[in-house]
Amino acid sequence: MQIYLPIAEMPVSVLLILAMGAAVGFISGMFGIGGGFLMTPLLIFLGIPPAVAVATQTAQIVASSTTSVLGAVRRNALDLKLGSILVFGGLIGSVLGVWFFAVARRAGQLDLVIVVSYVTLFMVVGGLMLKESLREFWMTRRGRPVRPRRRAGQHAPYLFWPLRMRFYRSKRYMSVIPILGLALFIGLAGALLGIGGGFIMVPALLYVFRVPTTVVVGTSQFQIVCTTLVALVLHAVANQAVDIVLALLLIIGGVFGAQFGARAGRNLRAELFRFLLAILLLAVGLRFALELVVRPEEPFSIAVQEART
Amino acid sequence: MRIVGALLILLGTFAPASAETLITSLSNHRVLINSNYTGTSIAVFGAVERDAQTVARATGYDAVVTVRGPRQYLVVREKERFGPLWLNQEQQKFPMAPAYLSVLTSRPITEMTSDQLRQRQKIGLRAIIGAPDFTNDRGQKDERFRDAFYRLKDREGLYLEDDRGVTFLTPNIFRASIPLPAIAPPGTYDVEVALFAETVILARTITHFELVKTGFEQQVGEAARDWRLIYGLFTALIAVFFGWTASVIFRRD
After folding, report:
1. Suppose B239 and one of A59, A194, A254, B232 were both cysteines; which one would form an S-S bond, judging by CB atoms 3.0 to 4.6 Å apart?
2. Which residues cross the membrane (chain A) (predicted)?
3. Tens digits of per-residue pLDDT, A112-167?
4. Which residues, given as ranges, of chain B have pLDDT below 70?
5. Which residues from B are below 8 Å from A293, CB to CB?
6. Chain A partners of B225 at a C-beta cutoff of 8 Å?
7. Please, which residues have CB within 8 angstroms of residue A32's CB and are 6 or more apart in sequence?
8. How far apart are the C-alpha atoms of B236 and A230, rounded to whole Å?
9. B131, part of any domain
10. Number of folded domains in chain B?
11. Residue B15: inside a domain
């Protein structure tokens, strides 16, 4: 069954889009990430114009993340205080990111900056997580309890910086400054690379700030909802690239997928959860790296020039 | 004397054109896109009328139907080796390229006319793509970009040449079917029909058809363009609503 997309100006198979929405929604719900870095390449592969793909999949992220956040609220697995600080820092970072985007474009090196940061981010974050989860596996298999990195009461020094706050839900008492720094970095990377940054947020909250796994997903999804809502409206206003029919199909597939994903995620053991997320990130990073290194079959590509430039 | 000469030249250029007249008609001047649109095809009919003085031509007629879609500003980029990486390096701009281009002929175009005439009159895909004003020219270097451009467009089904696309039903009446793939964008399409005999152009006509979104598709397009903020907020509202609905439906406790 085919349906014509009014903004993308092409027909697509309804079932295919629903299935894609469900698959990405499943992963998104499972790991508490937005999934934009998976959906955008899939849509572009189907022949949907890149601008429409990037803009429209934000609607799906909003929908599936809303479900996750509401679920987290019901299970009391959302740290609203931590989430608000992340949103605040993220918005400032986005503004900086948009500015940096313009600077890099003027220098003519935007493509290179984007691809290299993609590969570095995914490889570094994925590699660190893989190492950590393998270490955990090793420890448990030898029958030893997993040794905490630091003894109780002994935290990383940056958590003792000024402006300390008590986060009851996350059971942490730490400085706001490194959290704002993280949010700023994610907002910057997000605006630059067109991603939500959930895949940086989740491991950072887990490993750097030692937030409990149960709280991490809800809090990260809260931050994602807020930033993607802003992004969705901005895309509609600035680029007129949001296709409401495509968005609806992705949303319907996505909300179902996210439900089952979230349930599957809750039943996973914590170390397996981290291991799978690490593998996912490494695989995506590897895919981008291959694209850079392997001799392309068709070295030429065609693109419609934006009216502005 | 000079005036007579000029008149003779004028007569010389107009005489053959007045001998045969070409009449063409499209099956449809307005193609509507609705939600189950998956491409279409449009028929072109042509008739050749001879006035009383003209004798029938021994070789018969040939027809070339050229269809040009809405213009786009396209860029073709080439990936090249840069250290261990493959990066986009050189590019060539095609500022007025038709989004869709098809050339339908009654027999292979190379048999119909000479190279020079094809290039001068832009008859045939190769001649159109090879025309100097098709790119922001840089001399000989852009040849591979033109080739790549054609290859990529051909792969999408947007540029095509069919040397059996025009059928002569009688020696003076022909028919052609323009295939429009689903991804051909909405806009105005020019249909140019050229009538050939003995390697020269006898007559030319130009008609148009429009590919337009209707009903729901049209309203969505207009809303996205004219009511950007409201459209964006509405989409956001729908997304949040569906997210909320799902959380209620799937609530377990």
Report:
1. A59
2. 12-39, 85-104, 110-130, 176-209, 215-234, 241-260, 272-290
3. 677 778 788 888 888 888 887 888 778 877 766 555 554 444 556 667 676 777 77
4. 1-18, 137-140, 252-253
5. 84-86
6. 240
7. A68, A198, A202, A216, A217, A218, A220, A221, A265
8. 9
9. yes
10. 2
11. no
Do both B69 and B172 map to the same domain? yes
Tell whether A299 is covered by a domain.
Answer: no
Local structure of residue A204 (DSSP, 8 states): I
Measured CA to CA, the distance from residue A54 to residue A33 in angstroms comes to 16
Co-location of B154 and B218 in the same domain: no
| Residue A74 in domain | yes
What are the pLDDT digits (tens) for B190-233? 999 999 888 888 899 999 999 999 888 889 989 988 998 999 99
Residue tagged 């040009």 (tokens)? B68
The pLDDT tens digits of the residues spanning A76-92 come to: 878 888 888 888 888 88
Q: Are residues B199 and B178 in the same domain?
A: yes
CA–CA–CA angle B143, B144, B145 (5° rounding)? 90
CA distance A132 to chain B (A): 30
Kindly state whether residues B180 and B74 are assigned to the same domain: yes
State which residues form the domain around A218: 2-146+155-293
Restricting to A residues 72-101, those with a Cβ less than 8 Å away from any Cβ of B are 74
Q: Do B232 and A302 touch (CB under 8 A)?
A: no
Residues B132 and B73 occupy one common structural domain: yes
Note down the domain range covering B175: 20-213
Domain count, chain A: 1
Pairs of CB atoms within 8 A across A/B: 179
**What pLDDT was estimated at residue B16?**
47
**pLDDT tens-place string over residues A13-50:** 999 999 999 999 888 878 877 777 888 888 888 888 87
Asked if B76 lies within 8 A of A300 by C-beta distance, the reply is yes
Instruction: Find where tokens 């989740």 sit.
Output: A202
A263: its two tokens: 């349930």
Q: Is there a single domain that holds both residue B125 and residue B250?
A: no
Judge whether A306 lies within some domain.
no
Residue A219 is assigned to a structural domain of this protein: yes
Statement to judge: residues B189 and B227 lie in one domain: no
Of residues B95 and A175, more confidently modeled: B95
CB contact under 8 A, B239 and A111: no
Bridge partners of residue B80, in order along the sequence: B87
Say if residue B166 is exposed, middle or buried (CB neighbours under 10 Å; 0-12, 13-18, 19+): buried
State the complex-level ipTM: 0.80
> Which candidate from B34, B182, B232 shows the least CB-CB separation from A236?
B232
- Check which CATH number belongs to the domain holding B129 and give it: 2.60.40.1930
SS3 A174: strand
pLDDT interval class at A108 (50, 70, 90): low
